[in-house]
Amino acid sequence: MSAPTLDRPAAPDERALQEHFDATIAADKRIEPRDWMPEGYRTGLIRQIAQHAHSEIIGMQPEGDWLLAAPSLRRKAILLAKVQDEAGHGMYLYSAAETLGADRADLTDKLIERKQKYSSIFNYPTLTFADVGVIGWLVDGAAICNQVPLCRSSYGPYARAMIRVCKEESFHQRQGFELLMTMMRGTEAQRAMVQDAVDRWWWPSLMMFGPPDVDSPNSAQSMAWGVKRHGNDELRQRFVDMTVPQAAVLGVTLPDPELALDPATGRYRFGPIDWSELKAVIAGNGPCNDERIARRRAARDGNAWVTEAATVYAAKRTQEHAS
Ligand code: 3HC
Description:
Distance between the termini: 35 Å
Order of helices and strands: HHHHHHHHHHEEHHH
Radius of gyration: 22 Å
Number of strands: 2
Number of helices: 13
Strand content: under 5%
Bound molecules: 3-hydroxybutanoyl-coenzyme A
Structural class: mainly alpha
Mean pLDDT: 95
Largest sheet: 2 strands, antiparallel
Helix content: 55-70%
């Protein structure tokens, strides 16, 4: 059933359904899978939730590269737990997308065919182990700023998936900060390694929040429907305000000479973001885009036998129960 449009006035029952949907959103209540919803609400949610899920799964690659080279058993165990968490976040989110009629195998194919996106941040290389700490501190810190409001998203399954994701993100961010603090209390070379990683990841972390609101084709409708609770600029600002004092505790310098506290607002002013870089990375021209997609394709194709076996087994069990 598609939403009523100007040239196709809604049938009375559809108008009532639209009014009920609008009243539910206005009352800040949840839309659930069995509720009527405008087609644009459904497709917009699949778009965002699928990209979110793809980001979690692709996001396993940059840190996963360091699992065999972690400097201690403790660091390896922590990193293993984090990477496994990201896989679980992806599964929650694909499950949330499936409540809207999407199919995770189809979404994965769209990702691999570059018909759906994932977060630009995962297209940068992890050159040293300090990158693992900086990803936890900055990237997961940015994810927390972006995902906590999504716990109040108007779509029930998405909001509920975010609650557990955000609890685990807090661990991700803290382990990254603790890793960096350990290195900053280490040798001069370790301190230089941390500063180098901060220099490389700071601006791409700000780009995670998307283009400026004025250039965001999705934000207005997404916020009107209560999917997104704040604009890209507000969430980016919250992240900067949260992170600058943490950088001071760590003893690192954020690579922005214009960064300064505005006493009038109590918020940090920061320098211009290079939007051409975000556009290039989203278009597939980042440092690691091809590698990330190639590995995702290899994982899908190399493990197809597992999916097939599980599908056949499940069908057989269903048939046995039915007979
Ligand atoms: N990387 C890739 N694509 C991006 C992007 C980025 N950093 N920022 C924006 N885009 C894309 C959008 O998807 C949109 O393209 P589309 O219409 O083809 O989907 C276009 O650029 C315009 O951006 P908009 O601001 O209009 O798009 P949105 O309203 O969807 O806002 C968003 C973008 C803020 C990323 C929003 O989609 C969102 O909040 N998504 C859910 C959270 C999420 O995906 N977080 C990032 C990664 S998850 C993560 O970090 C996990 C942690 O464990 C590491």
